[in-house]
Amino acid sequence: MSDPNNPYAPPGAPLPAVAREQPAPAPAPGAEPSGYGPPPWYAPAAPTASSILSDSFSWAWSRFGKHWLPLSAVSVVYSLLAMVVAVVLTLWWALGFGAFVGQAEGEELPFEVPHGTFAGLLVVGVVLLWLFGPVLYSVALRVARGAPVTGESVLAVPRYGNALVDSLVLGIATALGMLLCYLPGVAIAFLAQFTLYFAIDRGLGLVDAVRSSYRLVTQKLGTVAMLYLGLMAVSAVAGAVPVVGLVVAVPVSMLMSAYVYVRLTGGQPA
To answer: Could you tell me the pTM of the whole model?
Structure first.
């Protein structure tokens, strides 16, 4: 039998022994292993806007379950104040408009619209909302930073003065933008939505806090836009079920916003 690998071997020549592959010797201690070496390291993929949105909701829901009592209490107080302001404003507008139409048509109304009372109630409600607004941001930020949330800490708002000034200026600017052309007010609210977080968390003044919020929103526009849409969805659920809105939707929305703020500024929510 001839060797198929060597056609020039004489007939009847014995086949050569097949050489067996010997295992490679083990590397010496401390030496680099032979071959291709360890697999290359790849940096983890950056989180997408949709992933941050889903993470923020999951995190907010989990933290709401742990701190539901103080979060719900703050939410109920703020929501009731907002409802009072809305009811007063609606009644004042409806009665005032009805009186105006009646007088224009020459009709005499059986009562006079108490404009002074409505104005006083509206001013009191708006002032209380203004004073209480930073509490929502402070509580959400405490949860995101892992700080204790107790009855005393809820009312202990860091840099409270800065937050009040910022919320007053932004509230006036947003209201004027809404009255003038609506879209400017929406743009101001969107671009300045993290202003109070920067004021409370880092002690920034009005200009620096607004600038920081604007820079963060424009640099992470996709993520912030997704957050805005997510908060609108939560608000829609709250509007459909008022009790859920008072107790659950408002604190969950604030926690989602605080989560995104901490993530986008380089932190890791607790």
So the answer is: 0.77
